[in-house]
Amino acid sequence: MDTLYGCASSSHEESTTETESTYEELNVDYTTNDDGTYTYKDNIYKYKIEVSGIEGESQVTLIILTNDEKTSFEDVSYSLKKAEASTGIPEFVVLGWY
């Protein structure tokens, strides 16, 4: 499974009526295409989705670009933990999390 993730991040506070959450956005330069797809480094992704799960003791939601709308939080988490470097097209691109 090919993956891509980054290190640079910036923090944005988003307020809700009851709780406050922090959105961490990675410095990923992608383009939203006219047909609703997304392009990152000459690779086209069909979906921009959120996947959620438990990481440690916290609920985490990741925002990713992918061609498989059934990509799960576990798929992404497992792949990031393996941290395998690859020269192929990444299966997903992590844009940020909260």
What is the gist of this entry?
With 98 residues, this protein is mainly beta.
Q: Any idea what the radius of gyration is? A: 14 Å
Provide the structure class: mainly beta
Helix content: 10-25%
Q: Give the N-terminus to C-terminus distance in angstroms.
A: 24 Å
What sort of overall outline do the alpha carbons produce when their principal axes are compared? globular
Strand content: over 45%
Secondary-structure element pattern, one letter each: EEEEEEEEHE
Counted by DSSP, the helix tally is 1
What are the low-pLDDT stretches, counting only 5+ consecutive residues below 50?
Answer: 1-19
Q: Report the count of strand segments.
A: 9
Mean pLDDT: 81
Biggest pleated sheet:
6 strands, mixed
How would you characterize this protein structure?
- This protein has 98 residues and is mainly β.
- It is 10% helix and 49% strand.
- Strands 1, 2, 3, 7, 8 and 9 form a six-stranded mixed beta sheet that branches. A three-stranded antiparallel beta sheet has the order 4-5-6, with no helix packed on it.
- Residues 1-19 have low confidence and may be disordered.
What descriptors fit this protein?
globular; 10% helix; single chain; six-stranded mixed beta sheet
What is the strand and helix layout of this fold?
Elements: E1 3-4, E2 9-15, E3 20-26, E4 31-32, E5 38-40, E6 43-45, E7 47-55, E8 58-66, H1 73-82, E9 92-97
Parallel strand pairs: 1-9
Antiparallel strand pairs: 2-3, 3-9, 4-5, 5-6, 7-8, 8-9
